Predict the structure.
Amino acid sequence: MSSDVAISVRGLNKIYSLGSKNEKLALNNISLKVQKGSIFGLLGPNGAGKSTFINILADLVKKTSGHIDIFDMSHDEKLKDVKKLMGIVPQELNIDPFFTPYELLEIQAGLFGVPKNRRRTNEILELLALEEKSHAYARTLSGGMRRRLLIAKAMVHDPEILILDEPTAGVDVELRANLWANIKNLNKRGKTIIITTHYLHEAEELCNDIAIIDEGKLIAKDTTSNIKSFIDRKKIIISFENYSFDLDSLTNLNLEHKIDGDQLIIIYKPSEIKINIILEALRLSKIQIKDLSIKETNLEDVFLKLIKT
């Protein structure tokens, strides 16, 4: 694909009719771009419109208005072609329990019209660490394996874009880490990944770009680091030996600070003051430091701030 933009969305709206002239605006004028080869996070609280957005891409829900391009091809005019470029991994674990992973991938490949000599069933099973269970009934698989099997099914036609709706929902910590390792591996192979997730720390660590939607509106869209910078605030936590120091040097810098037990807590804005100036003030205070840590702004702080504004 020549385009650097995998998905371009302009003015996307979705209105659900609830009967008796009642309507719900699920998506409100959403415009965004997803860069080719990126891991893109779509965040928002329950009911924000994330699944509606994905279901429109998957052609499971019809948009009310707006325009979508997939690698510069119109989603409306070239629907059959653009659907081949996407693999959708739903949130629900909908797997036929009476087929094996191998059989399910073969059936899925057939549905996409992939010729037998071009199928990569064993390769995909190995990639997602399912080869040992390839001939076991799907009903015998663990939750994490079923989740990986859904990803495998979405890959049978070798799509350029993988869209995963809450892929780690209900998966324990160990299997979640394994699943994200698989997703990173797919991204390294050039696949564009779009994920929705409630686990904000995962989005923070994995995603290159993030969009946050709330009540159907796009309230932020930027690189992960830029979104984090929306809150210009860091916290220094210092454990000290005994309270025999002078805080005038900190007071003179107009830094917010307080004593909490045997800890000194300093709040500062990185855009206004450099850490080395604070460290010099601490040296002048003659504080006996046992331990020092700096708490960065995390994505959850940003998320909570943005949806409240």
